């Protein structure tokens, strides 16, 4: 029985650490100009930068799948994998572009903190989880949103365009939550025990969208020197974050994965406090406490009913009860 508990603890702890590392990489990306100004921050327009990143990511994921001899999905499953790249990356980027100039960076953080709330509501229907777990996690997601609003109060839109931009960002958060739920379900149904084929197809679809956006932009000349200056950061931070995101999809439910939208701002705030050696007001401490509590609840409160945990429970039956054979199909 002790072995079973240890196995379940390790199975749950490793993905949780993965989400924490992913959030730290996201926080580093937002603090790049302050932490590493020599890496050419904002040397490329956003669409070009994303096109380079996802092209490299798609090639690397496909290479990993090829080396491990994992078959790529076909037919509707392949199209679904490509749709993951659109829902997680391309559509939110388009929505952010529409909102650019009308919504501040802090307001964008506040709106995207709604992603865990949307995931909690959608997960029972899109991923196949039990509604009870979703209702229990809703308190943690709402606590995280309250913490974000304490730290970054959302400005009331002063015009119809600003309200439309805010609605576009909310739609982007909804798209990310829904796609994350579907991607987790899809990743667990893939053959081969790896999400790298899905990552390759999703990265290729996202890359194609960003390349098309770059070509259609008024300025189509690529600045290769700027691309080379940003390449070290892309390889050191952004690329590992994408690989880690898809690695988590087979090991963690979407609700727990979206805790990254709460942890990343928290880590960025803590890093900024350390750099500036400043202390926030009481409202800031309350916000960070709510943010940490909400993210921690989403991440650690409930174990996942993954295939790995089911195998562990089968290998370690409850003491005092005979092990029953599996039911016939």
What's the SSE blueprint?
Elements: H1 2-30, H2 32-35, H3 46-67, H4 76-99, H5 105-112, H6 115-126, H7 131-151, H8 160-189, H9 196-216, H10 224-248, H11 254-257, H12 260-276, H13 282-300, H14 307-315
Fraction in helix: over 70%
Q: Which strand-content bin applies to the residues?
A: under 5%
Provide the residue-averaged pLDDT: 82
Shape: globular
The SSE order reads: HHHHHHHHHHHHHH
In terms of structural class, how would the helical and strand content be classed?
A: mainly alpha
Main pleated-sheet profile: none
Task: Supply the number of structural domains.
Answer: 1
From the alpha carbons, calculate the radius of gyration and give it in angstroms.
21 Å
Count of DSSP E strands? 0
How would you describe this protein?
- The protein has helices spanning 2-30, 32-35, 46-67, 76-99, 105-112, 115-126, 131-151, 160-189, 196-216, 224-248, 254-257, 260-276, 282-300, 307-315.
- With 329 residues, the chain is mainly α.
- The protein has one domain.
- Helix 1 (2-30) packs across helix 12 and helix 1 packs antiparallel against helix 14.
- It is globular and about 55 Å long.
């Amino acid at each position: 029985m002790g072995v079973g508990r240890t196995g379940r603890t390790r199975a749950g702890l490793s993905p949780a650490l993965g989400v924490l590392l992913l959030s730290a990489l996201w926080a580093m990306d937002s603090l790049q100009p302050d932490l590493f100004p020599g890496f050419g921050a904002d040397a490329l327009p956003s669409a070009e930068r994303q096109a380079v990143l996802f092209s490299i990511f798609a090639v690397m994921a496909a290479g990993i799948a090829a080396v491990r001899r994992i078959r790529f999905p076909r037919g509707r499953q392949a199209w679904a994998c490509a749709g993951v790249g659109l829902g997680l990356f391309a559509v939110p980027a388009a929505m952010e572009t529409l909102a650019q100039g009308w919504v501040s960076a802090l307001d964008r953080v506040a709106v995207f903190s709604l992603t865990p709330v949307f995931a909690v509501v959608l997960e029972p229907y899109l991923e196949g989880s039990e509604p009870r777990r979703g209702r229990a996690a809703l308190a943690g997601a709402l606590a995280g949103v309250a913490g974000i609003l304490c730290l970054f109060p959302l400005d009331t839109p002063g015009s119809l365009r600003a309200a439309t931009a805010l609605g576009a960002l909310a739609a982007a958060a909804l798209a990310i939550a829904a796609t994350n739920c579907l991607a987790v379900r899809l990743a667990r149904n893939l053959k081969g025990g790896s999400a790298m084929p899905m990552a390759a197809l999703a990265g290729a679809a996202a890359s194609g969208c960003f390349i098309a956006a770059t070509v259609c932009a008024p300025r189509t000349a690529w600045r290769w020197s700027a691309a080379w200056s940003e390449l070290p950061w892309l390889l050191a931070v952004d690329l590992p974050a994408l690989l880690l995101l898809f690695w988590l999809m087979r090991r963690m439910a979407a609700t727990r994965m979206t805790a990254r939208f709460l942890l990343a701002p928290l880590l960025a705030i803590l890093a900024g406090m350390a750099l500036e050696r400043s202390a926030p007001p009481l409202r800031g401490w309350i916000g960070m406490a709510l943010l940490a509590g909400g993210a921690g609840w989403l991440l650690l409160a409930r174990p996942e009913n993954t295939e790995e945990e089911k195998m562990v429970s089968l290998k370690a039956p409850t003491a005092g009860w005979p092990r029953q054979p599996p039911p016939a199909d």
